[in-house]
Amino acid sequence: MIEKEILGCILKDNSLINETVLKVKYFSRQEHQLVFQSMIKLAEEGKAIDRVSLLAENYEYLSHFGGTDFIADLEAKGKVENFRTYEQQLIEDYKKRRIEEIVVNFLNSEKRDVQKMMEELRETDEIGIREEKSAHDVLLELYNLPYIEKNETGITSGLNDLDKIIGGFQKGNSYVLGGRPSMGKSAMMLKFALSAMNNNAVPIIFSLEMSKESLLKRWISTLGNINLFLTNNPYELTQRKKEAWQQAVNELSQKQFEIYDQPGQTIEFIRAKTRQAQKEYDNIIVFIDYLTLIKDNREYQSEHLRVSAISKELKNIAREYDVPVITLAQLSRILEQRSDKRPMLSDLRESGSIEEDADCVMFLYRDSYYNKDATDDNIEIIVAKHRNGPTGSCEVYYNKATGLIGDLSEY
Length: 411
Description:
Elements: H1 2-12, H2 16-19, H3 30-44, H4 51-62, H5 68-75, H6 83-108, H7 114-125, H8 135-143, H9 160-166, E1 174-179, H10 185-197, E2 202-207, H11 212-224, H12 239-253, E3 258-260, H13 267-280, E4 284-289, H14 303-321, E5 325-330, H15 354-357, E6 360-365, H16 367-370, E7 379-386, E8 392-399, E9 404-407
Parallel strand pairs: 1-5, 1-6, 2-3, 2-4, 4-5
Antiparallel strand pairs: 6-7, 7-8, 8-9
């Protein structure tokens, strides 16, 4: 039953009680109404919402439904990452019951007031809509903005030439980093994440392709200046490189970051972990590697529609939690047929509404991948779309062996 799933989620994560739009009357069963009301009361009093506190509040009543066993059953129900889905379903169930009640009351009334019934139906339709700031409230906040010094415009990418174009990664914005395989997308993501760590931001990485260990080895390779191939068997490293390895591990151990590498990650999982991270850390940035591997249990008539739905959800996460979301995307091999193989926005159009939803679209192009006579592995970053600023491109240094990326002026 959906009501038990919701109560179970709140027992697992007490903070949900302060975020939900649910009301006691939305629950159909009296015992669930009582438990939810008790949860609200405990939260208002600053107390933990758990088995002990709920039984202490309502022992006599809950004993009729099994007491400890009743609460234990609730604790086993619900997945926190699916809370928003449960919440919406409960609201829809309540609205159906309420509409039926309004119509029945109207039909049974001697004086059938059509206007009153329509008003009640309109009010019911608006149930569950989250309150937003009015435009005038936002204007008041903007009034003094010219006189408030802003030290940080966004989370730096760690690449000065790129920051000159995009101004760093802005809160509430969705970024897409696209490229063909072997262009350096994962290396670039780890560069951005490492730069965020060094600038008081916590990267939250959802890796749907590589394992946690593989990503960490890539960081160790970069920080320790160790050939990535050799990280597969560090025992064979020279003594100097072994010391560099341990120094890199020590450096990373002092940083704050999260990596989730479970297979089959869903949008609900990504949203839940982002919400939790936002509560734990002051400043976060989200990375997803990569978009089309995100699982969606809903059925779609085409892959195009599935990817479009996921793309919109990622933008919603960026806005809802006011964080930058950087999503990696594989590009179609169609571009390989062109003489100039630099990616264009049209290369994304077969992959749902990614281009439309993103605030900024960046592509990676490495000439050495196609031109064997190239003298370096440098990466060209093409900012093909930038909703809030200019487009353009910049070239950055790339050491393919170690994954090191930096401004050309530094190397």
